[in-house]
Amino acid sequence: MLIQSRDNQKIRDYIRLRDKKSAREEKGAFVLEGARLVGDALKENASLFSAYYTEKAAERFPEVVGGLCEKLGDSAYAISEDVSEKLCDTVAPQGIYAVASRLDKIPALDKIVYGGKFLVLDGLRDPGNIGTVLRTADAVGISGVFLCDCCDIYNPKVVRSAMGSLFRVGFTEAYSFSETVSMMKSAGVSVYAAVVDSDAESLRGFEFPPKSAVVIGNEGSGIPREDVLLCDKRITVRMSGTVESLNAATAAALFLWELTK
Q: Which one of 155, 222, 242, 244 is CB 3.0 to 4.6 Å from 217, fit for a cystine?
């Protein structure tokens, strides 16, 4: 079946999922764009509802399109270039799109193994930062990520920035910060606040215990004072020169490296 109309209901549904968090929550689904991302979804055996591809995409990425057709059958739709332009959310679209089921792989705190390492994101709003942090968490082998009052993890910009790590990292948006910290402490996890404060302990040389979690706060305001007070200790990156603070994703990379080395 070739979809040529931009007003096709399936196309309209995809765009609604792409643009509206409420639609993603209502349908329990989110969108993927691009051969690399859709290919990662296939490799990780993600649950897909539907897919869309152009003739050019089928010629350029035969393995990905073939995998979609094999997995989805009649729910993999060929689309015109005009429809692809309607679906795309990138500067250089590749003509491959998919709708996937929400992932929410909630880290099981009651089954923490020795050496569990966790990351808590507290109020991050920038989609690119969250996606980059997820990639870093995937790279260093973090045990799980908790997102508290953050930008929607299924925002297309987050999904693209994560570059497939979304399918591999355990995460949840289900709990408030206080609930998350309470659960962690009940499970014997020490919680450390990453702060910009000369009075805090230096990250350099800090020895994280086997069960530990690091909290990264909002890009502009950091971790709220009341949340810092719930943590076991404050840790900072001592900086030289005139630099006063680091980008949230950069700070997270430094802390995650030290946490998991």
A: 222
Q: Quick check: helix, strand or coil at residue 116?
A: coil
Q: Cα(250)–Cα(235) distance, rounded to whole angstroms? A: 15
The mean predicted confidence, pLDDT, of the chain is 92
What's the pTM value of the predicted model, to 2 decimals? 0.91
Domain with CATH 3.30.1330.30 in the chain: 2-101
**What pLDDT sits at residue 187?**
86
Domain with CATH 3.40.1280.10 in the chain: 109-260
* Structure confidence at residue 44 (pLDDT): 93
Spans in the chain with pLDDT lower than 70: 104-115, 241-244
Q: Which fold has domain 2-101?
A: 60s Ribosomal Protein L30; Chain: A; (3.30.1330)
- For the chain, the distance separating the N- and C-terminal CA atoms, rounded to the nearest angstrom, is 51
* Local structure of 183: helix, strand or coil: helix
Superfamily of domain 109-260: SPOUT methyltransferase, trefoil knot domain (3.40.1280.10)
Q: In what order do the strands lie in the sheet with 233-236?
A: 171-172, 144-148, 117-122, 212-217, 190-194, 233-236, 201-202
CA 28 to chain centre: 16
Q: What is the pLDDT of residue 105?
A: 66
